[in-house]
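Appendix B.2, paired examples.
Example (i):
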Amino acid sequence: MKPYIPERLPLQSLDWVRFITLIGQANAELARYDGILQGIINPAVLLSPLTTKEAVISSKIEGTQASLEEVLQYEASPDIKAEKYNDIQEIINYREAMRFAIEWLKERQITLGLVKQIHGGLLDSVRGRDKARGNFRSGQN
């Protein structure tokens, strides 16, 4: 079985008219959010806990079992070997990958290289590290 190869972006067959209202609403919400962040001296203070929570929730898709509280406890005392160290490390990797992508996108576009770098970071020192870190699969499961 050959791997699925998606169409090149941007999709030519996409019906943009169907999405105009939703795009407008999303744009307005992003502008409002950006306005809030502009008024905060250090936006990272607001974003850091939200980014960590997003990492916890999204990592559960992969079977990660650590909670937000466990991640925060580990980060407050990294010398203590946490029971769920591997799960916590996966969450931390996820959060760092998001931060890396945010910094990258401030000056560059989304590229395959970015996706590969993010993938490599996600698998750093965790389960899957011996797989094709930073590379696309060459076959289906």
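Example (ii):
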Amino acid sequence: MQQVQSVILDIDGTLIDSNDAHAKAWVRALERNDIHVPFEQVRPLIGMGGDKVLPEVAGTEKESEKGKRISSMRKQIFLHDYVPHLRAFPKTRELLQHLREQRLRLAIATSAEPDELQTLLRVIDTQASKYFEEQTSSQDASQSKPDPDIINATLQRSGFDPAHTLMFGDTAYDIEAAGKAGIKTIAFRCGGWSDKDLQGAIAIYNDPANLLAHFDTSPLKQGF
């Protein structure tokens, strides 16, 4: 039985209710480039970065001229039209505070771009950065989830021991990426994925509030 010493957290769909907003921003950016892809096709891809989404829905690479144009539009749409309306899931701030009170070390690992990450953190709390020792984002990895690059970068920068670290995520991509880096995952349903999709996790909770309510019986307290 391993005791938890540190936690690596995803943010979109895990701490903040933003997955639908990301998908809508992609759909609108694609439409502005005469690529018509339904929301239902894009939504299951959220959790991966643009390096994975663009080849799938637009047949182009993120670093191509077309890919850069679409990515830039998506980002502008997301930040301008959707971020002002985003909310953290219930008890997110309280969960982060409790984790720190339990002397657990925390880090963020996300496919979001660095400035998007800072904006998202402010949705949780204007001082949310204080909870995290490290923040890794798309600029820190050549490949986004489900490749393990971002998780590995977080481990390297933080010095977390994988054997005593858990991942918080909401998608199968989080679970796969963490697994490739030697880390087990606690999954949340609030990102919109089914229990079947999340079956690789060691525990599944509805949302941060649900985990906080059952903290003492969770792997965070009991070990794994």
